[in-house]
Amino acid sequence: MGFKPVKVFLINSTSNMVLSELNPNSQITRNAGEYILLLYDANAMNIYGRAFRQKIVVSTHRVPSCDEWWISYANLKLASIPSVGSAVRFDGTAKAITTYYGKGSNAGTYSYDDGLNQSANGYVCYTVSPQANVASSGGYVAGPDQVFTLSDFDLTYQRIDTAYPFSISSSFSGGYKNPAKAFTVDLSSAYYSAIISQYQIAGGTFYYKKTSASSYQTVSFTGSSATVPANTFENGSIYDVYFTAQSTSGASASTDPVTLSTVDGPAVVSPVSPNNEVTYGDITYSWNYSNTTGETQYAFDVQTSPDGTTWTTVLDHVVSSQTRAEYTQTSAGDTYWRVRGYNQNDVAGAWSSEAHYINNVPPQPPVILEIVPGGRISVRWSAENQISYRLEVIDASTGQSVYDSGDVYGTESFALVNTYLPNGNYTIRVKISNIYGKESSWASTNYNQRAELPAFQYSAVYTNNAVSINIASDEFESFYLLRNGELVAHFEETTYTDLFASGETNYKLIAVNSEDNFAQVTFTINASVPFARLITPDGQVLMVSERWDNFNNVEQSENSRYSANEYLGASTPEHLFSKMRVKRFTRAFYDPNRIARQLLGTVAFYADEYGNGDWVAITSYTRADSWLGDDTKIEMEVTTRKEDVTYAV
Fold it and tell me: What is the pTM of this model?
């Protein structure tokens, strides 16, 4: 087809930068150097051109209006033209000048033709013409103007895509890729400022293979972006990869091969929280994760330890990219923890350094393992973090507690219910406390007691200001006596005398055989006291009712403990009362042998004819002597005293 250039560009042959766009009828002046002339056809799609190695020279003897040779399409000034009779055709062969036109002796039109038809072959015919107007003197006029002109045609005919070939580059230059994730690579064609329309990428192919493999696998794409699907690559492998692409004009190009790795860097973690703080059961562990590829964590483990030496895994290979985890810790006390991460190849890194916290939660309830039967049952359990325990027995029929050990400090997990349980159903329950004072909930179990034996024969009478007990059985080894619910005596003989009864007194007598099975009887004695007396714990009796004037009397008072606060502006104090009540007795009596003085500062049992009966502390002693006789007065304050008697273990 014919070639009719519609755009002409002058380009630096070294940098390929466009210097000027030349209109078909314009002229241009340039500095010395090599240039390329590019011609575009009418539709600017099929790009053709002639590459010229052009040099600008300086013509020093010329008149601007005379002797200017030019190319009719580009109006580029020629420094020289082949002589008449010969020319060099643009395809490199010689061709004679076929036409010469003269106009006067110096003026006229000079033309030559390379012999090729422009319309038929797509080549450009150049017409060279001197200017018709000359100076009036008929000669050339020298001047200072220096006009730069093009010279030395390089008679090479090329396609633009040969001179400026299609080439591509990619946004992926090699490195790590997570095989579980799709990734997109952008391709771009080389940019040439010398051409009017840049190359466009129509599509292409992604090639990949393991470095040890012999053949490539492919992923096709359209456009200038290639998306590689997830799971295209295997974890922990090395691949050779490259791209090929085709332009919209049909040209092809490839990138250089690069290395793609799916081998993730080692996981590095460090604990953040909790660290040197107190927690309350629900723990949130958090940590930092990093590796050399910048990838996220694939999974993690968490371990805890009570001492930083013995470790237990509490969160095992949890697949998550989150660097935090929730955990409910039931054990209390000092806790050390550490974490390790897994990279995207599911390869575990090293354990982190340890961090420490104190978990202040109630301990887990104990587990009751065994009830050992007997008159006094034993309970065995297991527990963690125990520093004390409490054991209680509840009568299932009444809901009343029949035994309560109170808080017993120690790590023992076996206890004797040190009381004899009558036949019946009971609830046995145990709870523990840890070193931080936190109590567990109760652990309980039901128990049916069947160790009580039939009742035995006995007698009990109140005589000579004492209760005398006789047992008519020889099948028991020892006996326990409870007065008003309190254990007061343990004896092995079949007789016993109780000096400390006063008023209506309830007794329980327990008889125990060699297997710790038991029988029991209960009875009530009305211990009426005709005269007031003090009885020491070792059984000495001091009568405190006889008086020289026979006016026997007893004073009784009760006081409440309180504190009185006086506030500014108040007219009366504010009293704050405690639960403590102080009960006092004052007794005057005849004591010729001055025995009462020996009781000052001691504890004794006081019983009188008015029904009072309490353990008292002797806090004051007063004696008055006269010719009529002596008068002794003591003050007594009710005190708490328990008999030093327990069930034998």
Answer: 0.49
